[in-house]
Amino acid sequence: MAQGALREADPELQACIDECLICERICLETMSHCLELGGGHAEAAHIRALLDCAEICATSAGFMLRGSPLHGAVCAVCAEACERCAESCESMPEVDQQMEACAETCRRCTESCRRMAAHAASGLGAIGSPA
Amino acid sequence: MAQGALREADPELQACIDECLICERICLETMSHCLELGGGHAEAAHIRALLDCAEICATSAGFMLRGSPLHGAVCAVCAEACERCAESCESMPEVDQQMEACAETCRRCTESCRRMAAHAASGLGAIGSPA
Amino acid sequence: MAQGALREADPELQACIDECLICERICLETMSHCLELGGGHAEAAHIRALLDCAEICATSAGFMLRGSPLHGAVCAVCAEACERCAESCESMPEVDQQMEACAETCRRCTESCRRMAAHAASGLGAIGSPA
Amino acid sequence: MAQGALREADPELQACIDECLICERICLETMSHCLELGGGHAEAAHIRALLDCAEICATSAGFMLRGSPLHGAVCAVCAEACERCAESCESMPEVDQQMEACAETCRRCTESCRRMAAHAASGLGAIGSPA
Q1: Tell me, what's the ipTM?
Q2: Which of B48, B70, B74 lies at the smallest CB-CB distance from C66?
Q3: Residue C79 maps to which CATH number?
Q4: How many structural domains are present in chain D?
Q5: Longest C-alpha distance within chain A, in Å?
Q6: Which of A120, B106, B115, D121 has its CA 20 to 30 A from that of C98?
Q7: What's the rounded Cα separation, in Å, for the pair D107 and D109?
Q8: Which of A24, A31, A34, A35 is the mutation pick for testing B, counting most B CBs within 10 A?
Q9: Nearest C-alpha of chain D: how many angstroms from A69?
Q10: How far apart, in Å, are the Cα atoms of A70 and each of A85, A124, D16, D61, D109?
Q11: Is residue B126 part of a domain?
């Protein structure tokens, strides 16, 4: 069964889905946090980076959960958005625990999505295909 | 065909889907606008109201497009979120064209969703059911 | 700081966010699984129940992560969608491991969302408010 | 004001946002339609193509509405997903009005997103930047 194979045989895919959903969650949380802090933390570019990251992480997880043939392409863009979000968090005037944790999670998601994108581009990444 | 019936027979449902998608769009646009303006326009409660409205409008449209039996309940919450968003826009220190248009769209969506929720609660709202 | 209070002081809210995101994930996964199985598993009402549940779970998590005043109302609808999804999974002609796990997750999310909705309705649920 | 410039000065961007939201809507509608039809129309690959298209269209619109620097990259993937969805609709055993309309909308969105991606890649696409 293609789907059974998907779920059991590809721990890297499962890990990437998890990273994306964890990253979406912390970005939405950090956005609320930064809006509460106000000032430089609520500036448009930073909130945009957080929302970009949250939205593409959710989309990326969706493509992987559906076993979509385009999941690699979405992961590639997701990696980019995660990296920019990490940089935005780290560039804040004051980087508190929340922003540190957010940046760290984004960097982990970047790496996971990059591996997934490379894997898919190499032709080994057809989800559910025989090994 | 249930779905054919859905699409042809219920102009009110189609109109409500449209209102929700138009409202989602203008709320996301207004959020960007308000973040750019900064100051009171970027305060947490206002951005939250805009994002709440955008997200539940998208969800509401999704439930109606799927012909879900719970669409009435979602529309009821959506109406509430739209109304609060309109109030938040109107309470800004300076209400420019963008915020005026957003408030107006939210009020239209409130009314449309309220009718849809009442319709569903009355038992007449089973999507795709015979008239 | 309101947001700090939110994150540290309300383990029940955090747990409900987690339940919603876990439930969204398994519903999307189960939908793919059921479409692969085909036949009765791919019938419109079942796929609709899974998509309804996934979408409102994501929305519910979003409202809680933003600390929105309407999170209780969204959780109430979410509880309903989760319960219907559990019933739909359990009513399948053959209930395999995936559908069993999905039903169980949905029931846990139902309970968590119901508590959250009751909490919010009791007036104790203003997120970030002093105890 | 950057945002004012965005909204007034770039009709192509506005048109692409509209195409994406229209495409999302018709894909969700067509998915319900195809699930109701059942048989070949409800096969996993087709439903997946429709959901992929709907989800990335929504994301693409979100990136453009936020004026995100990554909107071009998202539009490029969106164009691909729209094209695959159009092909999937056209490959159905029986192509009725709904699927015809869906394929047509997807093709229009493909073109619009491709122009947007090329525009962004050429360095002219920084949203809100001076012409």
Answers
A1: 0.90
A2: B48
A3: 1.20.1270.360
A4: 1
A5: 53
A6: A120
A7: 5
A8: A35
A9: 9
A10: 23, 13, 21, 18, 17
A11: no
In sign, the C-alpha dihedral spanning D21, D24, D30, D33 is: negative
Q: List % helix, strand, coil for chain C (3-state, nearest 5).
A: 80, 0, 20
- Residue D33 makes CB contacts below 8 A (sequence gap 6+) with B3, B7, D41, D98, D99
In a domain, C7, yes or no: no
Cβ contacts below 8 Å, chain A against chain C, sum to 51
Tokens 């998202």 belong to D74
What are the chain C neighbours of B72 within 8 Å (beta carbons)?
none
Chain D CB contacts of C38 below 8 Å: 42-44
CA B131 vs CA B5, B124, D34: distances in Å:
10, 8, 23
What is the distance in angstroms between the Cα of D93 and the nearest Cα belonging to chain A? 22
Helical (H) or strand (E) element with C84:
helix C71-90
pTM: 0.91
Range of the domain at C36: 12-121
Cβ(A109)–Cβ(A61) below 8 Å? no
Backbone φ, ψ for residue D107 (5° rounding) = -65, -40
Distance from CA of A56 to the nearest CA of D (A): 7
Amino acid identity of C19?
Answer: E
Give the per-residue pLDDT at D131.
35
Residues of C in contact with D32 (CB under 8 A): 44, 48
Residue A71 within any structural domain of the chain = yes
Question: How far away is chain C from the Cα of D97, in angstroms, using its nearest Cα?
Answer: 20
pLDDT digits (tens, 9 = 90+) for B63-116: 999 999 999 999 999 999 999 999 999 999 888 999 999 999 999 999 999 999
Is position D78 within any domain?
A: yes
- Within chain C, which residues score under 50 in pLDDT? 1-6, 129-131
Pick from D32, D36, D47: which is nearest to C35 by CB?
D47
Q: What residues contact C115, with CB distance under 8 A and at least 6 apart?
A: C12, C16
